[in-house]
Specification:
single chain; Arc Repressor Mutant, subunit A; three-stranded antiparallel β-sheet; Jelly Rolls; alpha+beta; six-stranded antiparallel β-sheet
Length: about 290
């Protein structure tokens, strides 16, 4: 399989943020990745297809996504969008601009948490977009670089306290684990990551941490916001998506290697969670990939 295009951004070593506004009629940039963080705002792009890792979604009239992580592939492609004036504002920055000492300060705690989550891609709801819209609306036209810096920092803070930011790519696809505070949950999560292709039983997983199945099931849901079965399916789908991208194995082979015991169920579940069939997902990545 061809490698994903690695973008060399225009962010220089002497700048904190690279900010650009574009007006376009279509998206033509290929599937890519880069080491910098990228905040992408799109207006009038209803119908555009966004791919971030193994997340495939059609966006609405307003879109705001933060992407981080050097290995997280992403692209916005035309999809069914018919707009003749798509507005895009991109803010790119290196995580190094804050430094570990600054990020460790209390005032930056929420930004630090957000940057970690952004390794899987973060999509912000319309209510959050509207809170920063007025600043985004003119930030690219500010002549004073320091003012741009302060506004960019304020935008990041406002986004970091959004309670409804949604993680896009699965941890198993992005090769970046999500932070889990509970040691018991983390122990089970690690076991699932290593044995996702096996038959996993609630009783066995609960026994790993010395809990009865009913109590552990409730405990896991409280700590992660997902049921144990939902988590296992997400992990398996993430590995399946990565295999669809990185290998030439058949869909059937991938289905069984990732712990699914029924091809029809695998296809149905994949489409429900990824908004496309496994074959279509592979085709989209193959179409967007270019040889480095």
């Amino acid at each position: 399989m061809a490698k994903v295009f690695t973008e060399i951004t225009r962010l220089s070593d002497k700048d904190c943020f690279y900010i650009v506004e574009r007006h376009k009629t279509e998206f033509t940039y290929p599937l890519h990745r880069h080491k910098e963080f990228e905040l992408n705002f799109i207006q009038n792009g209803k119908g555009v297809r966004r791919i971030v890792g193994d997340s495939v979604e059609e966006i609405g009239d307003y879109e705001l996504v933060l992407v981080g992580g050097e290995d997280l592939e992403h692209v916005w492609e035309q999809g069914s969008c018919q707009s003749k004036d798509i507005r895009e504002i991109t803010i790119q920055f290196s995580g190094d601009i804050f430094g570990n000492e600054l990020l460790s300060k209390n005032q930056f705690a929420s930004i630090q948490r957000m940057l970690r989550r952004a390794e899987h891609g973060l999509s912000f709801p319309l209510s959050t977009i509207m809170k920063v819209y007025s600043i985004l609306d003119d930030i690219a036209h500010d002549k004073e670089r320091f003012v741009q810096f302060l506004k960019s920092l304020y935008i990041l803070y406002e986004l970091s306290v959004s309670e409804d930011a949604r993680v896009l790519a699965s941890s198993s696809f992005a090769h970046s684990p999500r932070k889990v505070e509970s040691r018991r949950v983390e122990k089970v999560r690690q076991y699932i990551d290593e044995h996702y292709s096996d038959q996993l039983k609630l009783a066995d997983l609960a026994a790993l941490v010395g809990m009865n199945p009913v109590s552990f099931s409730r405990f896991f849901h409280q700590r992660t916001g997902r049921t144990l079965s939902e988590y296992i399916v997400d992990i398996r789908l993430g590995h399946a998506a990565r295999m669809l991208v990185d290998t030439s194995k058949t869909v059937s082979e991938i289905c069984y290697e990732c712990g699914f015991n029924n091809l029809s169920n695998f296809n149905r579940t994949f489409k429900a969670r990824r908004n496309c069939t496994p074959r279509d997902f592979r085709a989209m990545y193959k179409k967007n990939k270019v040889v480095v």
